[in-house]
Write a structure and sequence with these properties.
2 copies of one chain form a homodimer. By secondary structure, chain A is of the alpha/beta class. Chain A folds into 3 domains: 2-44, 434 Repressor (Amino-terminal Domain), CATH 1.10.260; 57-154 and 285-313, Rossmann fold (3-Layer(aba) Sandwich), CATH 3.40.50.2300; 157-283, 3-Layer(aba) Sandwich (Rossmann fold). Chain A is built from 13 helices and 12 strands. Chain A has helices at 2-8, 12-19, 27-40, 46-53, 70-85, 99-111, 127-131, 157-170, 186-201, 218-229, 245-255, 273-276, 285-298; strands spanning 59-64, 89-94, 116-119, 138-141, 151-155, 176-179, 211-212, 239-242, 263-267, 279-282, 310-313, 316-318. The first copy, chain A, has a 6-stranded parallel beta sheet, sandwiched between helices. In chain A, helix 1 packs across helix 3, helix 8 (157-170) packs parallel to helix 9 and helix 10 (218-229) packs across helix 11 (245-255). The radius of gyration of chain A is 26 Å and the shape is elongated. The first copy, chain A, binds a DNA duplex (16 and 16 nucleotides) through helix 2 and helix 4.
Chain lengths: 328, 328
DNA sequence: CTGTTAGCGCATTCAT
DNA sequence: ATGAATGCGCTAACAG
């Protein structure tokens, strides 16, 4: 910037004024400065500017599990859109279900003084965030934090699972399996609770043999369904509730072309679900990311303590055929 | 940091030493300082640190079209992984095929002094980047830049298209349609060139009626296929080459359950392509992002001028059935 | 209207 | 082994 000032024959402050479009500069000098800027290819250092002005960093930090998972990719897109409305950029990081890594990432983001921190919590403890005094603009997504109070945006896991299982019960199924993610995950727990609750409400008995949790990957879900279908006929399920998009797709791989012998309802929408005729409980990852970002960015950091809010994003069942196969 | 120094009863510089793990501090003082840090919940301001040290910002900027597109989500994941190896964070931005917006985003990233800039170029001119003197660490992905020289990583578009069309020719097809993206896009142009080239090489004639470019969205691709299939029998195509993942999925929606009357090869892999038996030309978006990030981060910024490199990531055809339907 | 001084939070350089 | 002074690039608060 000093170079620009010298080249334009004005003071450093005048350059600053031109760049920030502050009033009170002669058009002639504005032109000189702009010419110098163009000649030198100068770009203001926003980092130095925000350091001095003490203003916001205009940066949002997002910690998700994996950008390549379509569910989180949509969340990231939503957050980026909201950030853009607030003239902010988004730093996206992937924790890969690793608590230690999550902590490193959060620390790195705090060290960069992000204005808002959005986290899909993976660790068993998040009190370290509150310890930094930053808790005000932290919002948790998809899962509630552990050992700390903060705004949280969730999908209606239990109700979604109940919708799915009740739907299958309505078609006469009594032996309904669940293929879900690791029980250490909040969403997996909640969906299993919903599953049990719906079975109880429908007067069906829970058979532990039909509960296959602990598999998050596509391959393990495929295996789980294969094992279920290999059971003797009287113990075999007639329907399955796949508790997330990975599980649903894994199950479809197990069943391949012949899906008529096992009714299926999946949790989470996925691309081509319509074409494949897969009945799902649709969640709204875009809305979740949007709400979370607005909560975090909408709050002025000086508001002081507040009680943590919890937003539950609704779900809906979309019938497409795979969930409407009657029990044999 | 001053607060910490006061709380610990030492000078500011000593705190700095402890934080940066510099040698030459009494263990006793280290303990005092660490206690003060814990008590105050202090986190170093990395922004101020990098400003003073003049070192790298440890930030990578990525400009893609849309994080929610699985293709770009994988690119983003790859770039994030490489950035992590270099102890850097990734700022992801979406230009949405808008040249003006792309320029805004690039400027915003340069103003933050990112160490490396990775761009899927959307605009008609990118000389403005070179004008900032930053060109050294800029790498373009998926499409070459306009009016400027810089490292570029591309997939083998023309060869991929040729593979697809040659495959269909081998099964006896003569009337092969192409459903592709807007002709303003480099990838669309290249794939159309490959299409024409393969037809010429195979002795088939090009029928302009079977060329349907200008549609990037899923819905427009579906429409395009519907129109092709509504042609009189003698003018109707017996095969189609869908030139990107959106087009392929749109085409599948048009065909629905009955895909036996139109052979199909798609450009780009997509989830469930295996299950649906869709033959595709597989590209490697992860590798593309990885190579681009390594090119950008591997270069020390002081290396001075260099000749722009161009890396072409290979493609391969994966036969799954939809492309092996013989011509009737 | 314009320029000068001071300082954001930290690391560098040089004293002590 | 520790600390004081100086400055990174910029803007806020004052001068002129």
């Amino acid at each position: 910037m000093l170079d620009v000032a010298n080249a334009a024959g004005v003071s450093l402050k005048t350059v600053s004024r031109v760049i920030n479009e502050e009033p009170g500069v002669t058009p002639a000098k504005v032109a000189q400065v702009e010419a110098a800027i163009a000649a030198l290819g100068y770009e203001r250092n926003d980092i130095a500017a925000s350091l001095r002005s003490g203003a916001k960093s205009s940066t949002v930090g997002l910690v998700i599990e994996d950008v390549a998972n379509p569910f989180y990719a949509v969340v990231a897109q939503a957050v980026e859109d909201v950030a853009r409305e607030h003239a902010s950029l988004l730093i996206t990081t992937s924790a890969r279900e690793d608590a230690e890594r999550e902590r490193q990432l959060v620390t790195a983001l705090l060290r960069r003084r992000v204005d808002a921190l959005l986290i899909v919590p993976a660790g068993p403890d998040h009190s370290y965030i509150a310890a930094t005094g930053f808790a005000g603009n932290t919002v948790f997504l998809d899962r509630p934090p552990a050992n700390t109070e903060a705004d949280t945006v969730l999908v209606d896991n239990a109700v979604g699972a109940e919708l799915a299982v009740a739907h299958l019960l309505r078609y006469g199924h009594q032996r309904i399996a669940i293929v879900g993610d690791a029980m250490s995950l909040y969403t997996a727990q909640e969906r299993l609770i919903g599953y049990r609750h719906a079975l109880a409400a429908g007067g069906a008995q829970v058979d532990e043999e039909l509960i296959s949790m602990g598999h998050g990957t596509l391959d393990s879900a495929r295996e789980a369904v294969n094992e279920l279908m290999a059971l003797p006929l009287d113990r075999r399920p007639t329907a399955v509730f796949t508790a997330n998009n990975r599980c649903t797709i894994g199950a479809l791989h197990a069943l391949e072309a012949d899906r008529s012998h096992l009714a299926l309802v999946g949790f989470d929408e996925f691309e081509l679900a319509d074409l494949l005729g897969v009945t799902v409980v649709r969640t709204d990852p875009y809305r979740m990311g949007q709400v979370a970002a607005e909560l975090a960015l909408g709050r002025t950091s000086s508001e002081g303590p507040h009680h943590a809010r919890r937003v539950i994003v609704p779900v809906e069942l979309v019938a497409r055929g795979s969930g409407e196969i009657p029990a044999s």
